[in-house]
Amino acid sequence: MSEDNLKITIGLLVGLIGLLSTVIKMYHDKNREIELKLSDKKYSTYSEIITTLFDLINKQKGLNNFTEDEILNRVMDVKRDLILYGNDAIIKKFFEWEENQLKKKRLWIWVELVALARQDMGNKRTKIKADDILKSLLNEQNDYKEFKKTLMNS
User: Which parts of the chain span the membrane according to its record (predicted)?
Assistant: First the structure.
């Protein structure tokens, strides 16, 4: 191989490597952009799940006066967004919640949904469980025990 051919081959290889690097970077950047958009949508949806949990507990305690229609509209928005952006475990937990509408246990399932949302938002190794979340929402240990007993006895 002559020296000129070697220079041309090296030049082509350098150009090809540069082109390939650019294509890979563009692909990576596009995927990262999509992941960020999904993460934003998940955050918004999961935030609404947590807000709804607070409202459901406050309603159960008689601290707010949301109508059933208002809560139902919010839940339908959550459902729409979960189906689009939620992972399988969260969607299945939501469907379980829907199946238990006539039972008091539905609020407990919603607390479990919040725990799963925390995990999906990057807290993979979290030790915070549904019990911990429910305890944090009630003022005293006795309130928690009584409230959970009421939720689970249905």
Answer: 6-27
